[in-house]
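Worked problem 6 (solution included).
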Amino acid sequence: MKPLPEPNEVSVRVMAASLNPADYKFSKEALGPIFGIDFSGVIESVGAEVHGFSSGDEVWGIAPGCLADFAIANPDKITKKEPVWDWVHAAAVPTAYLAAYQALGRQKRKKWSDATVVVIGASGGTGIATVQLAKAFGASVIVGICSAAKAQFVLQQGASRIVDYNDSNAMKDAEDSTSADLVVDCASASGGGEDYFSWSAKLVQTSGGICVALSSEKNETWAELMTNGTAAENGSEVMLVQQNAEDLRVIQALLRQANMLPVVGKELPFSKRDIDTAYDALKSRRALGKIVINMHEHPV
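Solution. The predicted structure is:
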């Protein structure tokens, strides 16, 4: 059944939806009974109080419960899709690139042409987004922390050099030799005991830079996040992504100008078996880029 939007909402036919760790980390009470946050699709109907969108518009952005044929979206959290983007790539962008863009926005100390950025977890969806956008901003040095197996790929996305997190000597060398203006930690509290908070803090000791983490395992940190949108933990600012259409439009323009596309590491059809496979891959914490469910040819 097609859902009917409230006066300040739009209903969309979902063409593709990408997965995020928040889908399984947060309760159904917080996110709703159907998984999915990021989508691309076609507007089916528009609430009476909505302006700037019409039925038939191709859009992408945030729509909780979008792992379904149809979803309801807040028009303040979606934007019109670039014609050159296909459904799958558009759906891969929202949360990962909002996180990357907003984390990079914390770096205000230097011109980007003089700035050194370290990205921990550089081969995941948000890590690649951060590398790409740091490159688009013109960062002088971008250090990617990832496995050696994914090093070449991350270099191709814009990293200047790679440090293998499995190599303790390389990590110690990076700790001793890197003076970062911004550390974006996309790996801590990913579900496997990862904790780079102390290591991150050492990279900014002499530079006066800032560390931004995108998750935490501490209940008190999450309580502060939900109240204030940001929290401090072990020398890092833990950041809660702000969902808004203005940032989505800026990100779309940045990627267009830089001739970049989000990296889709796995694309699967819309079936229960394939969605289970997709979440297994996401929970492994070893997925390259984004995992997207393609509903484009799925019959309604």
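Discussion: The mean pLDDT is 92.
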